[in-house]
Amino acid sequence: MKRNDTYFFSGLLFFGLLLLNNGCKGSASVNNEAKPAQVKQQKNTENQTVNNDEKEFRQFLKAFKQGVKNGDKQKLSTFLNFPLQTQPQWSNEDLKATTISPADGLITKQEYPQYAGNIFTKDAIRLIPASTEDNLVQIDNNTNESYYKTLKAVTDKGSTLYELQQQYVQVNNKETSYGFVFGKVKGHYKVISYFCPWPVKS
∠56-57-59 over CA atoms, to 5°? Predict the structure, then answer.
């Protein structure tokens, strides 16, 4: 009797260990399968953010173009983020040759009426409403260009910058250009910079 009990309990112990071992393997398998799903979900969230950014930007751009068409420079200030950057667009190569101070180009809300005519010129008011996809660029979120990195510092983390740039011929038959960069600030797209070949604020 005692011998049979020993075999019985030994068998139970072996069977229990076997179940425990299989259970641990099963748990590891479940965890390994969950990791790719988590990564996939994170990627989907990032893509969704980009898609939402573009949707919000498109809505803003439509309102901005209509506002420019209406020609009310004071009302256009509601589309701008202050302080507004107005330095001529610089490149990393420019920084190797000269010193550029981004702060020198910042225009406050109080200063805006003084410079509004230099930003929304007659040509800009005429051309912006007629702008097309060819005039738009989505800025790479991983850009190393100092100009865009400086602008991104004031925008919502992880949001996307967009740029509208147009070239045209002036009345003196000389070609020139101007541009606006748009960024999301506190959940809303705004104009965060204006640039042309010469300083707006001198």
Answer: 65
Which residues neighbour 105 within 8 Å (Cβ) at sequence distance 6 or greater? 85, 86, 87, 199, 200, 201
Indicate the burial class of 53 (C-beta count within 10 angstroms; 0-12, 13-18, 19 or more).
buried
Contact at 8 Å (CB) between 182 and 164?
A: yes
Structure tokens at 82: 């202050």
Give the model confidence (pLDDT) of 68-83 as tens digits: 999 888 889 999 999 9
**Type of residue at 2:** K
Q: What are phi and psi of 120, to 5 degrees?
A: -100, 75
What's the rounded Cα separation, in Å, for the pair 119 and 127? 13
Q: Does 149 or 15 have the greater pLDDT score?
A: 149
Residue 89 near residue 50, CB atoms below 8 Å: no
- DSSP codes of every residue in 81-137: EEEEE-SPP--HHHHHHS---GGGGEE-TTTHHHHHHHHS-HHHHHHGGG--GGGEE
